[in-house]
Amino acid sequence: MLIGLPRETKDHENRVGMTPSAVKTLTRHGHRVLVESGAGNGSYLADEEYLGAGATIVSRAEDAWAAQMVVKVKEPTAAEYAYLHPGLILFTYLHLASDRALTLALLERGVTGVAYETVQTDGGQLPLLTPMSEVAGRMATQIGATYLQKTYGGRGVLMGGVPGVAPANVAILGAGIVGTNAARVAVGSGAQVTVLDISHDRLKYLDDIYHGRLQTRISDESNIEEMVCSADLVIGAVLIPGGRTPWLVTAGMLPNMRRGAVIVDVAVDQGGCVETTRATTHSDPTYEVDGVLHYGVANMPSAVPRTSTFALNAQTAPYALHLANEGLDALRRDPVLRHGLNTHAGAMTHPAIAKEFDLKYIDPLQAL
Questions:
Q1: Of the listed 31, 63, 95, 232, which one is catalytic?
Q2: Residue 94 domain boundaries
Q3: Exposed, middle or buried by CB within 10 Å (0-12, 13-18, 19+), for 152?
Q4: 269 is catalytic
Q5: Pair (216, 283) in one structural domain
Q6: Tens-of-pLDDT digits for all 368 residues of the chain?
């Protein structure tokens, strides 16, 4: 199979879809890989390393996209829609539930869109989302701590406090991978942490491992409002696999929050769990609403691209090889990978996205 690895075009997106090691595995299996020159620069992976792995370096993005399969990190930007073509297998994060324009572009151009974030095991795990959720969760606390500094627009609170002065109050909405990792860093910094979730089992798990060093609350409207309005830092860590995230923090709650409080909404790439959240970029990461600082960067892990690239590739590379070796048969035979199929030959093959945009849903096996 001819496989393309283009440079990422999203603002400050420094990750790369494949490491030289992943490319080497593909070329050893007889596949040809076209790498756009400089694709790995943001992660300090040089063209020479890709050449050594057996890749061909191409100078233009369109050359890398003129392949049977393209492997990326982030969804195509509007400028890349022109490269989409019928029969293309696009293997990347797509997050279509918050992007109608991209959804329609993939459908109109007959692209087979396989989304990392919806590849799902029988047990409900999301193996290709997990590594970036781990990174984003840990970063969310670090970023929140930074923006709580008055020099960054926050209320001037130190996460762990000092003797005689209370630590920051941190409310984490969601006890999944993102929330658990955010809690790990927040507890380690000495903050007063409360995690909210609808799952008693997840809350019991956190209660058991932290032995009272954090608080847990059932996620309902009353508890959310109470915790959010008393928090210095709110971390949105809610996930609906493939679907748009519901608003748990409403615009009406913000006037009752602490002035200079910070919201870091990790769920922003699926629409966000805070009503006033909108996607921002690393170049312009924050904005203020009702005296509350919002951070909504949708590609947060790209700030630590080398860590993120290697963590992501450790999970995605075997699936990329599976797709390269078997093509569409990999989707037909592997139910885990088939969960990742969002679009194929003009058909919408993911129920949550179809519902979000009122599109006709077609079962993936039927579409294939």
A1: 95
A2: 2-126+305-367
A3: middle
A4: yes
A5: yes
A6: 999 999 999 989 999 999 999 999 999 999 999 999 999 999 999 999 999 999 999 999 999 999 999 999 999 999 999 999 999 999 999 999 889 999 999 999 999 999 999 999 998 899 999 999 999 999 999 999 999 999 999 999 999 999 999 999 999 999 999 999 999 999 999 999 999 999 999 999 999 999 999 999 999 999 999 999 999 999 999 988 777 889 999 999 999 999 999 999 999 988 899 999 999 999 999 999 999 999 999 999 999 999 999 999 999 999 999 999 999 999 999 999 999 999 999 999 999 999 999 999 999 999 99
| Pairwise CA distance, residues 10 & 73, whole Å | 10
Of 265, 269, 344, 350, which residue is the catalytic one?
269
Indicate the residue type of 248: L
CB 208 within 8 A of CB 236: no
Structure tokens of 261? 């409080």
Q: By the 8 A CB rule, do 234 and 264 touch?
A: yes
Q: Do 83 and 135 reside in the same domain of the chain?
A: no
| 142/279 same-domain check | yes
Q: Quick check: is 290 catalytic?
A: no
**Number of domains into which the chain is organized:** 2
| Same domain as 257, residue 313 | no
Nearest to 189 by CA among 142, 155, 148: 142
End position of a domain, from candidates 298, 325, 353: 298
Gap between the Cα atoms of 307 and 202, Å rounded: 27
